[in-house]
Amino acid sequence: MGPIGFSLCSPSQSLFLSSPLHARIYKAPNFAPNVKKSAPRITASCMETVQKGKGTTFGFKNLMATFTVNVHRAEGRRLNVPLIAPFTIATSRLDKVENVAIRIELSNGCVGWGEAPILPFVTAEDQPTALAKAEEACEFLRQSSGKSMCFILGEIGQILPGHQFASVRAGIEMALIDAAATSTGIPLWRLFGGASNTITTDITIPIVSAAEASELASKYCTRGFKTLKLKVGKNQCGDIEVLQAIRKAHPDCLFILDANEGYTSKEAIEVLEKLHEMDVTPILFEQPVHRDDWEGLGQVTAIATNKYGVSVAADESCRSLADVQRIVKEKLADVVNIKLAKVGVLGALEIIEFARASGLDLMIGGMVETRLGMGFASHLAAGFGCFKFIDLDTPLLLAEDPVLEGYEVSGPNYKFSNARGHGGYLHWKNVACRKVN
After folding, report:
1. In sequence order, which residues have a C-beta less than 8 Å from that of residue 357 and are 6 or more positions away?
2. Which end of the chain is more exposed for a tag (fewer CB within 10 A), N or C?
3. Which residues are known catalytic residues?
4. Quick check: 349 and 336 in contact, CB under 8 A?
């Protein structure tokens, strides 16, 4: 666990460390124009449970130790959604979203929702594997009622271990925690500390031509986005052209560069040199080198930080608490990017606590999720209030929004006004028959 490990089952310890609010803030689009909105199914017994829990300060640590899980139904289904345009990064291209949605209904009628995103070359699971493993976990849940949340999530960690099944584990954990929060009558952002009920995100521009990038930047800046995250790492010259075009059109925008492992350390340093000549200083350089090139990551970080004043973030290199401990010990990066699909919810909480105690800055991001997965991550970020960089924009890349209700949206800002749990949900019958050609 590391030098400051904690027991999630101990109600005497507080998971949340007090700190000033550093969170940046994001809200996603409210699409679903052709879907009739209706209230999620809340039974009389669920409402009674919600009312009893209303107004409590029921933290996540207490939830783990005291909440008894009684599962009535649990199921995973394909969650296929078209993209507005192909999403290209240095290591892969995504033409459509093929994730897995998780629905868990408790015996009191309260329902929780989760999402396991599938991103080739980043998540270990493909959709068929994710569906099979989700069913294995759901079968366990259907047969394990009457156990504490701590016990249940511990067993889920055994069924879906490590990075290999982290995305599915995250989806199951999301749904269980959402159902429990709904039962106790509190929104997720309060469960995770209650620092704020709002966040602000950056917006991602994938690898496209300089003209296309400039056009996207104009669109996003008009909508109020102040920070542009540019995917780079596939073509050094092309990356510089994109930056030049955007900088010329929008000189006041802040830039994050995300190479997704695409550069060598030498190339990454050359990019920083060229940007310095252009008088462009990114606020962050994310995963400049291959995930296993620890030496290269440290070299880029040393030069970026000391010579150019640019922070470097580890993303693909950050897949476990052990990775973060190494990053801190060897001073390999200034920031770690936490993604629930890489480490699960419980794994993320461990990393957050360790990173904060170690003085490492935090970023939160996602794969390519709907507002189901993004909403959970956003609640977590708002509740903690300790993330210096927030990158939870992927619902903006989708041509459709299958999620009903959930957070309120205004440009780059999210606001959580739901009374309990996640606040968003799916029409489950529609999910079963969705297809993307």
Report:
1. 4, 17
2. C
3. 231, 258, 286, 315, 339
4. no
